[in-house]
Each structure stands twice: as C-alpha cells, then as structure tokens.
C-alpha cells in the first residue's frame, strides 16, 4: 500500500519535503534531511511538506511515519505547524486529508501521539475522531496515545 503524493486540499498541497522548506518551517536543514531520508527508506512514509497554495510557502510538516509504539509497528500521524502559521486551521486541514488518503489507500489503523497538555493537538485529534487509547512512553517521553480505525 502506498499513499500517492501530492495530496491537495482547498488551501494546501501536501508533497515530499525539500531541504529548502527548512527556513519556512523554522526547522534545521539537518532535521528536514532526516525526514527526507526516512521518506526514501520507508516507502514514502514520513512527514511531508504542507504548502500554502496562495503563497507557495511551507506552513507545516504533516504526514504518516512508521513507529514502534508499545511493541507494535504503527502508522503514526504527525503534524507540526510553523509558528507564524498557527491558528489558521492548517493542522486540521492537512491531517484530515492525510487520514482520508491513508484509508483510501487501504490502511486500517492509524495512531497519533501528543503531549497530554498540547491543547491544539488534542482538539485536532478530537475533530478527526481519534479515540484516546491511554498513554505511552516514546523515545523516553510520556505521550497521550490516540487511535483511529477505518
């Protein structure tokens, strides 16, 4: 199964990351390169660039990554909106499109992890019908874990 990119929404084009997106996103080029390497290694699964149609600027990293969570290989939804692009609904718009693309491609289960006090992420996950599944420790940090079934 593979998710075909780009994924297009009303305001966004979701496509593979490019190193030059780092400046727009406020991230280091090295970290963006890690996501590009993961994309190549994991059959297209990684965080991708969410590009604002109107400006052509990267406004978020959003995508699906394979992660080991509580001993299971899970396809995990992630979204990080650039600081100067927050509170515009980009996280919901991008995440919703990605979830729909994953289910259309045949995936049956998605997870999402966030810090328990990340109100913005908790709100997005609730809007997207992710169900709380307790907590998990991932890379030494405590997260709230959510699951959505097709």
Brief synopsis:
With 150 residues, this protein is α+β, with helices and mostly antiparallel strands. The chain is 28% helix and 39% strand.
The number of helical segments is 4
Helix/strand/pairing class, anyone?
alpha+beta
Report how far the terminal alpha carbons are from each other: 15 Å
Rounded mean pLDDT score:
97
Number of strand elements: 8
Helical amount: 25-40%
Q: Poorly predicted ranges (pLDDT <50, ≥5 residues)?
A: none
Shape: globular
Order of helices and strands: EEHHEEEHEHEE
% residues in beta strands: 35-45%
| Radius of gyration over C-alpha positions, nearest whole angstrom | 14 Å
Strands of the widest sheet, in order across it, are: 1-2-3-4-5-6-8-7
Please give a structural write-up.
This protein is an alpha+beta fold and 150 residues long. The protein contains four helices and eight strands. It has helices spanning 21-25, 29-41, 90-104, 119-127, and strands at residues 7-8, 12-15, 46-52, 58-69, 72-81, 109-114, 131-138, 141-149. The chain has an eight-stranded mixed beta sheet with strand order 1-2-3-4-5-6-8-7, with helices on both faces. Strand 5 (72-81), helix 3 and strand 6 (109-114) form a beta-alpha-beta unit. The two termini are 15 Å apart.
Question: Which helices and strands occur, and which strands form pairs?
Answer:
Blueprint: E1 7-8, E2 12-15, H1 21-25, H2 29-41, E3 46-52, E4 58-69, E5 72-81, H3 90-104, E6 109-114, H4 119-127, E7 131-138, E8 141-149
Parallel strand pairs: 5-6
Antiparallel strand pairs: 1-2, 2-3, 3-4, 4-5, 6-8, 7-8
């Amino acid at each position: 199964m593979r998710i075909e990119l780009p994924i297009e929404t009303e305001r966004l084009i979701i496509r593979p990351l490019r190193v030059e997106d780092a400046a727009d996103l406020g991230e280091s080029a090295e970290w963006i390169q890690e996501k590009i390497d993961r994309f190549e290694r994991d059959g297209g699964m990684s965080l991708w660039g969410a590009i604002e149609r109107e400006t052509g600027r990267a406004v978020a990293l959003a995508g699906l990554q394979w992660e080991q969570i509580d001993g299971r290989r899970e396809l995990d939804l992630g979204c990080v909106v650039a600081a100067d692009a927050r509170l515009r609904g980009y996280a919901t718009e991008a995440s919703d499109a990605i979830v729909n693309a994953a289910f259309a491609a045949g995936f049956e289960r998605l997870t999402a992890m966030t810090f328990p006090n990340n109100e913005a992420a908790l709100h997005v996950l609730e809007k997207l019908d992710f169900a709380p599944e307790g907590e998990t420790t991932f890379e030494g940090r405590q997260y709230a874990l959510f699951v959505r079934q097709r």
